[in-house]
Prior knowledge:
Keywords: Cell junction, Cell membrane, Disulfide bond, Immunoglobulin domain, Membrane, Signal, Tight junction, Transmembrane, Transmembrane helix
Protein name: Junctional adhesion molecule B
Pfam families: Ig_3
CATH class of the domain at 75-172: Mainly Beta
Family: Belongs to the immunoglobulin superfamily.
InterPro entries: Ig-like_dom, Ig-like_dom_sf, Ig-like_fold, Ig_sub, Ig_sub2, JAM2
CATH architecture of the domain at 75-172: Sandwich
Shape: elongated
Amino acid sequence: MIKGSTLSFVYLRGAFVGNFKDRAEILHSGIHIKNVTRKDSAKYRCEISAPTEQGQGTGEVEISLLVLVPPSAPACEVPISALSGTVVELRCKESEGVPASKYRWYRNGAVLPENTFFWRFRKEKNSYTLNTTTGTLLFNPVSKNDTGEYYCEAYNRVGRARRCPVKRMQVDDLNVSAIIASVVIVALIIASCGLGVYYAQKKGYFLKRNSSMNNSSKYRATESGKDFKHTKSFII
């Protein structure tokens, strides 16, 4: 078995060793491998030597083995919510399939065509780009019509296709009226606070409060002085 520049002798002294131990056997001039995995994909070389009239004769043959693997269940990334008019990308990926898997997307149980030309004759205007090799579904921009339940399917020519769990994406329009109303309410609250402070200053509320606090401080200081004198005379 040859992998890269490394040569591995898997049959030695009439028995298989290493990864092929107990799962491979010689049948006539070939090798029967049981329970193959993707790790068995490699180039295999068979070398033969035999005595001849001219001396020792040799020969070799090289064979490539590709172990095919069906796809596994892909992982999907679908946003729960999105704003209409923005760019949204859905992703789908699996890494087990050999050959590499291709992908298709479904919305509400119906497959999305690769060519969006089909959608030009429909009342629902959809603008998306589907990459069957990377598994990405790009909406540029996304609209309310794109709201629905999505799932992705990975497939190759080996085994059956596998899909990810269904996920719902909700697309809503930007509520401009609600944003304007919120801004107006915040502005009114700030204006009311400013008017309240202005009214309090005009009535002299802060000046009266500061004056009463100063008088209170002076009274405490006087009382403290009296107590100190009294204590001092008591000690004498």
